[in-house]
Amino acid sequence: MKVKEYTVPELSEYIESLRSLYDIVRLVAPESCRVIELDHDCYAFGKKCFGCWERSERCRTCTSAMALKTSVAQGKVVIKKSSQFSVYSVPVRLRGANDVVFPCVIEMVTTHRNSIPVTYTDDRQDTLIVPAGAAVQDSAAGTEQFTAARIDPLTGLPSWAEFCQTTRDIFIRSPSEPRVIVMTDIWKFGLVNELFGIESGNAILRGMADALRDSGLMYETICRRGSDHFIMCFKSGDYIESRLCDILQKLSSMFTESVCRIFLQAGVYRAHDLTMPLSSMCDRAKLALNAIKEKTKVMVSEFDQDMLDRLVHEQHVLSSFRPDLEAGEFQVYLQPQVDREGAIKGAEALVRWIKPDGTIVPPDSFIGILERSCLISDLDRMVWDLAAGYLAAWKNIAGKDFYISVNISPLDFFHIDVLAYFEHLVRKYGIDKKSLHLEITESFMMSDTEKQLRIADRLMEAGWILEIDDFGKGYSSLGELKDLNFNTLKIDKSFIDETENQERSRAILESVFDMTKKLRMEVITEGVERKEQVERLSAMGCKTFQGYYFDRPLPVPDFISKYLSPDA
Ligand code: C2E
Ligand code: MG
Ligand code: MG
Q1: How far apart are the CA of 350 and the centre of ligand 1, in A?
Q2: What is the DSSP string of 134-185?
Q3: Is 196 exposed, middle or buried (0-12, 13-18, 19+ CB in 10 A)?
Q4: What is the pLDDT of residue 7?
Q5: Is 37 helix (H, G, I), strand (E, B) or coil?
Q6: What atom in ligand 1 is closest to the CA of residue 363?
């Protein structure tokens, strides 16, 4: 925004005109922390610009200093001695004697209704008195810049600053009434802008603002924040989820003809403690929103404490991952893969995060986080390296067909050359590549078949043993399996649990075994916990088992003494 320049008489006149609109209007020079006194064509630096600011925030974080720094009007609600008032600071440039121009700020203060009169006193007893019972002023009557601070120019809705002020005001008036904060989001709005142009995006935002205004939703306050978030504050009793869903549905189809079909979602936070900062309430509504971002069938999501706990956990994982990896807190456990008699064939390497106090963090609680933040390949490479090292070290104590299977995250393929890395491990440790089996999940193999097929083919052509992990957990169809090039199918625990339709899962399992036999593939069943499962699966043709019935994942020294030592 271009900061306007005034001569002394012009600014003097301008400030006079504002005096009827606000309780206090003054010109300040935040840099020197002084009030500037104007008198026709003279100006003078007067008393310190105290007033509504606490000593600690004077001119460092106060709105006047911010306005000066950013050249944009700033607003702030201040609560002091049980009174609440709003301060707006608009940057201007004052051209003084000899055409010397210096930046300063017009500060406008309004006390809120129901506030008791306030006396601002500075250290030198200069006193400004706010008139008793002064009314809240109409924002539209302010200056151009001032209005811009209160109104979102694109939609005409209140700005975030204005929303904060009015919502806080409402909270102060009825602090015991719980509120509901709703934040809406247009799914992949950036894409709309990119595909249809900014103007189309703006048209959607304006249309949405109008529609929300006319929606009949009984919000107390509303604003637009960020590019495509609309935030509403409801009295708890006035918020009806089904009504919100109806409106979101209606809005979603509103732009189909003019621009495109959009998809709207909303995050909801029920605020019982109104002393919590409004921005934290909105953060929680946003967290609820983020929880459904990838679920396009869900429209509304309410914040719950688990979401915050998950966020805290995620932050913890991200901040401690690298130092803990370097500190050796990530260790490999080995879970035996055995025949029906329990004789060892190989093992799966499963990572464990072992904290200094001995707490073991299971992989399911951090693998996904590391995948989302592109850190997973650092961990996987460490696990693969250790596994290859064990194979090299155990050449003489393990059987010649002994193998270790390692998990490959689908994300690894995006960040590193997986094939080249395994080839490097074979050279580094002098191991047979047939002894290091590679597990790739079924969901990855099925997600983008063409591309995945090429990856699988390259690994197979290079002589690696490829296993499809978690078969049956996802959505694979047996038909697709025949197109995939791999050696072993690992049937997921959920497939053999038979929790629902026993007959049906048996029939499917039998056809899986039939098909793998025809395609000459190996089968490993995971999660075997009971003797009768081993018997039933053996009858179907299964020769390799992994599960608690035989053993749990073990620390390496335990694995060695139980399975690889001469008296094992
Ligand atoms: P997965 O690769 O399917 O590993 C099998 C999981 O099933 C392991 O869980 C294992 O402890 C568990 N399991 C084995 N037998 C039984 C049983 O009889 N009953 C039950 N209830 N569970 C059994 P874990 O170790 O917690 O690993 C979970 C998943 O985390 C793994 O599933 C794998 O997808 C991932 N993961 C583990 N380690 C790594 C790793 O180093 N890299 C990557 N990318 N992922 C890993
Ligand atoms: Mg696995
Ligand atoms: Mg598995």
Answers
A1: 6
A2: PPPPPGGGS-HHHHHHHB-TTT-SBPHHHHHHHHHHHHHHSTTS-EEEEEEE
A3: middle
A4: 85
A5: strand
A6: 30
Which of 335, 337, 350 to mutate to test ligand 1, by most ligand atoms within 8 A of the CB atom? 350
Give the dihedral sign, CA 271/277/282/286. Answer: negative
Cα–Cα distance, 18 to 16 (Å, whole number): 5
**Over the stretch 37-78, which tens digit does the pLDDT of each residue have?**
887 667 777 766 665 566 666 665 677 777 887 787 777 766
Beta carbon of 527 within 6 Å of any ligand 1 atom: yes
Q: State how far the Cα of 110 lies from the Cα of 87, in Å rounded to an integer.
A: 7
Other C-beta atoms lying within 10 Å of the C-beta of residue 180: 24
Residue nearest to atom 10 of ligand 1 (CA): 553
pLDDT at 55 (0 to 100): 60
Q: State if residue 247 touches ligand 1 by the CB under 6 angstroms criterion.
A: no
d(C-alpha 406, C-alpha 80), whole Å: 62
407 pLDDT exceeds 80? Answer: yes
Residue 525, Cβ neighbours under 10 Å: how many? 29
62, amino acid identity = C
5-34 burial, b at 16+ Cβ within 10 Å, e below that, comes to ebebeebbebbeebeebbbbbbbbbbeebb
Place of tokens 């509120």: 179
What are the structure tokens assigned to 436, written together? 């290091």
- Alpha-helical regions (H) of 327-440: 367-372, 376-393, 412-415, 418-429
Between the CA of residue 234 and those of 113, 219, 220, 241, 554, what are the distances in Å?
21, 4, 5, 11, 54
The position carrying tokens 């090429």 is 454
Q: Which of 85-94, 205-214, 243-252, 341-350 has the lowest mean pLDDT?
A: 85-94
pLDDT digits 0-9 by tens, 342-382:
999 999 999 999 999 999 999 999 999 999 988 999 999 99
The helix (run of H) or strand (run of E) holding residue 114 is: none
Distance of CA 416 to the CA centre of its chain: 25
- Residue 557 CA neighbour count, 13 Å, CB half: 0
**Domains in the chain, CATH or no CATH each:** 5-134 (3.30.450), 160-303 (3.30.70.270), 337-349+374-564 (3.20.20.450)
Calculate helix-pair angle for 278-290, 305-326, nearest 10 degrees.
80
Q: How far apart are the first and last CA of the chain?
A: 78
Q: Which ligand is nearest to the CA of 553?
A: 1
For residue 540, give both structure tokens.
Answer: 């179907």
Contacts 24+ apart (CB under 8 A), 312-315: 313/365, 313/369, 314/369
Q: What is the pTM of this model?
A: 0.69
Three-state DSSP string of 269-300: EEECCCCCCHHHHHHHHHHHHHCCCCCCCCCE
Average pLDDT over residues 535-558: 96
- The pLDDT tens digits for 131-155 are 222 222 333 333 444 454 678 888 9
| Pocket lining: 529 vs ligand 1, CB cutoff 6 Å | yes
More confident residue, 495 or 381: 381
